[in-house]
Amino acid sequence: MSESRKQIHLAAHFPGVNNTTVWSDPAAGSHIEFSSFAHFARTAERAKFDFLFLAEGLRLREQGGKIYDLDVVGRPDTFTVLSALAAVTERLGLTGTINSTFNEPYEVARQFASLDHLSDGRAAWNVVTSWDAFTGENFRRGGFLPQEERYSRAKEFLATVNELFDSWRGDEIVADRESGTFLRDAKAGAFVHHGQHFDIEGQFNVPRSPQGRPVIFQAGDSEEGREFAAAGADAIFSRYSTLKEGQAFYTDVKGRLARHGRAHDQLLILPAATFVLGDTDAEAEELAREVRRQQVSGATALKHLEFVWNRDLSAYDPDGPLPDVDPDPGEHTVARGRAQVRMYRDPLATAREWRELAAANKWSIRDLVIQTSSRQAFVGSPATVADTIDAFVQADASDGFILVPHITPGGLDVFADTVVPLLQERGVFRTEYEGTTLRDHLGLTRPSSPAAAA
Amino acid sequence: MSTAPSALPSSEPDPASRSPRALHLAVALDGAGWHPAAWREPVARPRDLLTAGYWTDLVTEAERGLLDFVTIEDALGLQSSHFTEPDGRTDQVRGRLDAVLIAARVAPLTSHIGLLPTVVATHTEPFHISKAIATLDYVSTGRAGLRIQVSARRNEAAHFGRRALPAFRFEDLESPAVQELTLDLFDEAADYVEAVRRLWDSWEDDAEIRDVATGRFVDRDKLHYIDFEGRHFSVKGPSITPRPPQGQPPVGALAHATVTGAPFRLLGRSADLGFVTPHDAAQARTTVAAVRAEQEAAGRAGEPLHLFGDLVVFLDEDPAAAAARRERLDALAGQPYTSDARIFTGTPAQLADLLQELAEAGLTGFRLRPAVAGHDLPAITRDLVPELQRRGVFRQAYEADTLRGLLGLPRPANRYATDGTSTGTGTEAAAPGAAASDATADAVVTA
């Protein structure tokens, strides 16, 4: 066992509302019933994973003015599921994606502080932003936030929530029956925040939780997002799962920490990664091809092309050639409620590139989408996948991975049973939880308790 | 403890649970108990109030007594003995956890009892709460409900900074300005319940089709925009969470007689469960009549609407012991405990007599507020319940797996379904603009 090798962090992303998740497989179960979440969480905990991860979207996605019906649709409420999962697990971290645009700091702070209490210190918050009026139609304030202000609000939201967490030092409750003193300090929880986005004051009503503050994740990739993470996040949920891209991202973000007065190991970089396992590498490759075809049906391929074309392409044959017509360069109107459309910043160039690729390889629309949309990050036998994951982490392409199975809820089982033991044999992944809190698992220091008021 | 399943064949109704005299029983959980000095009792666990274990123990105890449900108090500010503002006191329990999260944490560890967390409509999002309660219904497999409440406290509004509420005192309650404020808050809460209910119905039960042939996961014709437009907010929908197992988790509210009539109006129009506070049988008759009149006015005359009497209870086998305990706690608190609800001090048999008398006046159940959770909750489950069972007015075993089932409420049809695949007798979409709940009420309780 090599003492000097970097320890790998592993997490499990409950299969989400996107076409990575294969619902058509006979093994696919419910995405809503609690039994699916409990199965998934227990597998992750049996495998000694750091945490479970839940994504969120606050409006059903639409394409062409209709609810998008080709992927899994619907999900339960994040806080409620995580709190219930705290009852059926003991050590597993519980990470929830919660939007900083369509929530208020006081409520989110009390929900995360409550979750941290109820899970004995296992709560984490993946802070996401949105600005679109489309999602806003479900909320009191509508589409109130200009796009350019979303990080400004997110930053102030996070700062405000931290002020609320820190408004209790942790030693206020004395509950002395004899003297009748319950609270040491009548001002416990007092806070004042007057800022651009929030103008609030009063007393926070959840005393300090076991982790002090929940672990903070950030998922954005823009320059602003990277700075936001370097300044205040404990971990980044990134999307770079290839070695070179991963290393570039890792170097960039870790390089920003010193400027914020932070240590190199106090921000973890954890890309999302899909996987397909087989008894042999060849078998896994074959399986992976099948999974890709399940993930990208002809109908899904056309819808995916519409993200770039920004036009109704339903008349095209997915098994035929790419459209001759160019993308509509105007404001994107076809697909709503998706982050994906923002990835294609120059649709005309993308279309040109894809036409050339398809022509050169004799690909149909469906072939092209299968080939160009992200394939599985790790494909191979358990030994190959364990090697690859270890190599990535040792080469500083990441500090570990958030694994995204494509089957609910059993898709993680085979990874837990075959890959994890190999990583444990190599001495790069824990065989038992050493601590009780998520901060312990991630090697993060507990935020210092705010100084006692004089 | 008698929790053995009924020996009767399943086709035969359990006489106790089906008898017209059968009572429904719930407990209201709040911190160490409802008396402000409850935390100082030897049996109390004041340092555990923020732990999962504490709440699991309380709800498990309530389930042991075959109770219909528990409610869990909550607020968007620190507890206070003052009606409308913080009190700066350090001699009472201060600090709490989010009630929805407590209910969710306890749900997988219980199997029959209903879970009604308090939800404050005033500063929260109906979209978030609708999916939270729907999800509570999933994690409890059909045992969720919610107790809706409004907040008229200025300090709580300042925690959100989105609206300014006027300062007022308890004595000002009947002033025109405060009446206007409370009517407005109740209007908003009624809209809130309406939006939450529509969101629960925004997915038809069979919307998820997983049709591999066409590649469609859902039949989007069975997903519905709710297009709620109210004075305080609008909500487009559909929910991101499918229709919960019960279809419509029961909605409850505490309501008192007020000059505006708003709280009773809410019960009449929007609630499945009303918590009311008559102090005797005569008041119970008046209260029941007033709420039933509102129900009729709302066009819901034939629909089930439970009216539960709220009572604070000090229970001991010796009535003198109960009275002495109350005196001791009052002495510790420095003043006599007062409440909006009747405070009962006595034996389980005396309480059973009172409950039967009040039931004769038209109440269908009772929500008991244990003065000391660690003492009076077990007294309810281990002494009062067996007494009621002996009298044939309380269930011998759980007769249903869902909260609606325990309350005798049919699973309602989906208001948006057109093809008759969702069956049941309907819960109406209450008209927006109805009034709601009990801002003022809970503040009185803690006064």
Automatic annotation (TrEMBL), chain A:
Enzyme class: oxidoreductase
Ribosomal protein in keyword set: no
Residue ranges constituting the Luciferase-like domain according to the UniProt record: 25-395
Positions bound to FMN: 97, 151, 222
Molecular function terms from GO: monooxygenase activity; oxidoreductase activity, acting on paired donors, with incorporation or reduction of molecular oxygen
Entry-linked CDD domains: Nitrilotriacetate_monoxgenase
Protein keywords: Flavoprotein, FMN, Monooxygenase, Oxidoreductase
Pfam families per the UniProt record, alphabetical: Bac_luciferase
InterPro entries, sorted: Diverse_substr_monoxygenases, Luciferase-like_dom, Luciferase-like_sf, NTA_MOA
EC number: 1.14.-.-
Protein known as: NtaA/DmoA family FMN-dependent monooxygenase
Organism: Streptomyces apricus
Organism lineage: Bacteria, Bacillati, Actinomycetota, Actinomycetes, Kitasatosporales
TrEMBL record, chain B:
UniProt keyword annotations, A-Z: Flavoprotein, FMN, Monooxygenase, Oxidoreductase
Annotated FMN binding sites: 74, 118
Region named Disordered: 1-20, 411-447
InterPro entries reported for this sequence: Diverse_substr_monoxygenases (IPR051260), Luciferase-like_dom (IPR011251), Luciferase-like_sf (IPR036661), NTA_MOA (IPR016215)
Luciferase-like domain boundaries: 53-329
Pfam families membership: Bac_luciferase
Matches recorded under Gene3D superfamilies: Luciferase-like domain
Comp. bias intervals (Low complexity): 417-447
Any GO MF annotation of the entry: oxidoreductase activity, acting on paired donors, with incorporation or reduction of molecular oxygen
Domain of life, source organism: Bacteria
Family statement: Belongs to the NtaA/SnaA/DszA monooxygenase family.
Protein name (Swiss-Prot/TrEMBL): LLM class flavin-dependent oxidoreductase
